[in-house]
Design brief:
mainly alpha; Serine Threonine Protein Phosphatase 5, Tetratricopeptide repeat; 29 helices; elongated; 505 residues
């Protein structure tokens, strides 16, 4: 042999077998070039100079392998490695790990053409077209665990955010797959699976959402899943497309999500299409609980949402307790007068970090602080979640227990960490809150809460300081057990790497 093994990056064992058979036939027919090759790589003595095993040996040696079995083993190894890389590529593409996806493509040319699922995920429409032309059944074929068809990978792909050419390719892939029989509204019987439309909305790909809707996708598939997913995005492109195609909000609770996001424009879009809100007594209450801006509350009142109490607590009292005085005034004008207690005013003063008013109320009602309920004290968690550092400091100074609001050691620290409130986190740690309390109702430790929040930071209202929060927790000795390197933040990944966390970002 003149050199080492020389297989291509995409070895095809069937093609190698065909080449061996062609060589055998050509040599048997007396072809001079075939005979020359058989002479250059002579086979061991045995009957029949043109038997298939002789031709296979020639093919193997021409590729730098001493025998046909060695060549077969090498092809199997390369194929397995390639399959693993292709699997990693398509899942990195759909999980916001695009730096890794880019690296995999650069390291292994042609990797995107490995199979129809990977080609669909990266928008390789020419590859998809060729594969479907050979085998149309691939349009509904399922890959390995977790088991998805190519349409799911195309709709979930995030490449449209980085590469306009691949964005166009994804649209063409979806058209090709649907033409070949892909299931527009998801696999039949898979009631738990996210629909293709839901996947495209989750990826915030309006052009693809429009294509699916124009092809007949059900805007209310899976009991209104698309609208709820659209409510997760700050822009309203996908939401507007769904509403234009007849999506019905009451099936999805998208309005509650928009209220939780404090999104006035989104609330108005949904209320304009929802119709009668007279039975939606939870809406205004939800807005007050989430400390929404007065504009959100006004939009709900304009749309006819009623002002309803819960557990003998009126929205007005709740607004006063949370220090949202503008909303309280708005509700007072819009509803019948409601009794507001000294406890309500005291808690509102705490949330507003009004130390003078809080102390004056305590002086006038000496038993007020001792009479606070577990629910009252849990406002410390709300202040921590919203980044109200001065309010948290006042409550701690007045004696609010740091464990208020949950059965674990430090729910306030979890809330502040999840929402990236670095200043509050430092304040709580300075007050002796341990950095590793476990909260089974959220995401484990405060550090794990932060890493989880990075995966869907649309839940978190700005301003946030993820890096400062992570640094404060680690400086306080937070454990990195079960932590991972978040692809969403290279700075945090580097910080965690310095603390011994390993992984591929």
């Amino acid at each position: 042999m003149d050199s080492g093994p020389s297989l291509t990056r995409q070895p095809d064992l069937d093609q190698l077998r065909r080449r061996a058979k062609e060589l055998r036939r050509a040599a048997a027919a007396g072809d001079p070039e075939a005979l020359r090759r058989m002479t250059v790589h002579p086979c061991p003595p045995g009957p029949g100079a043109t038997r298939l095993s002789a031709a296979q040996l020639v093919i193997a040696r021409e590729h730098g392998f001493p025998s046909w079995p060695k060549l077969v083993a090498a092809v199997a190894q390369l194929t397995a490695s390639r399959d693993e890389k292709a699997y990693a590529l398509r899942h990195a593409t759909t999980d916001w790990a695009l730096p890794r996806a880019r690296r995999l493509l650069a390291e292994t040319p042609g990797l995107a053409a490995s199979d129809i699922w990977t080609a669909a995920a990266v928008g390789e429409h020419r590859v998809v077209r060729e594969l479907l032309a050979t085998n149309p059944a691939l349009a509904t074929a399922i890959d390995g665990p977790p088991g998805n068809p190519p349409l799911t990978f195309a709709c979930t792909s995030r490449w449209h955010r980085l590469d306009p050419a691949r964005a166009v390719g994804l649209l063409k892939v979806v058209d090709l797959l649907l033409d070949a029989g892909a299931h527009l509204n998801g696999l039949p019987g898979w009631t738990e699976a996210v629909s293709p439309l839901g996947c495209a909305i989750d990826a915030n790909h309006p052009a693809l959402v429009r294509l699916l809707l124009e092809r007949g996708a059900d805007p209310d598939v899976h009991d209104g899943e698309p609208l709820y997913l659209a409510a997760e995005h700050a822009d309203h492109e996908c939401l507007s497309l769904l509403l234009a195609h007849g999506a019905a909000e009451p099936r999805s609770n998208a309005l509650l999500r928009m209220i939780g996001r404090n999104d006035t424009a989104g609330v108005r879009l949904l209320t304009a299409s929802t119709g009668d809100l007279s039975e939606r007594g939870e809406l205004v209450w939800h807005a007050v609980v989430h400390d929404c801006a007065p504009e959100v509350v006004q939009a709900l009142l304009d749309a006819g949402a009623p002002i309803s109490s819960q557990d003998d607590m009126t929205p007005l009292r709740l607004a006063v307790r949370r220090g949202n005085h503008t909303v309280a005034e708005l509700l007072a004008r819009a509803a019948a007068p409601a009794v507001v207690t000294d406890t309500d005013r005291f808690l509102g003063a705490c949330m507003a970090a009004d130390r003078v008013k809080a102390l004056r109320l305590l002086d006038s009602s000496p038993g007020l602080l001792a009479g606070l309920t577990h629910q009252d004290l849990s406002l410390l968690c709300a202040a921590a979640e919203n980044g109200l550092t001065d309010a948290v400091r006042l409550m701690l100074d007045l004696g609010f227990p740091v464990e208020a609001g949950g059965a674990n050691q430090n729910p306030a620290l979890h809330r502040a960490s999840f929402h990236g409130r670095a200043e509050v986190v430092r304040l709580l740690l300075d007050h002796g809150v341990p950095p590793d309390g476990h909260d089974p109702d959220r995401y484990g430790t405060p550090l794990l809460s932060l890493l989880t929040a990075l995966s869907f930071d649309q839940y978190v209202r700005p301003p946030v300081d993820w890096l400062g929060t992570a640094a404060a927790l680690l400086a306080a000795g937070a454990s990195t057990k079960d932590a991972w390197l978040p692809p969403q933040s290279r700075e945090i990944a580097e910080l965690l790497s310095q603390h011994g966390v390993a992984g591929d970002t």
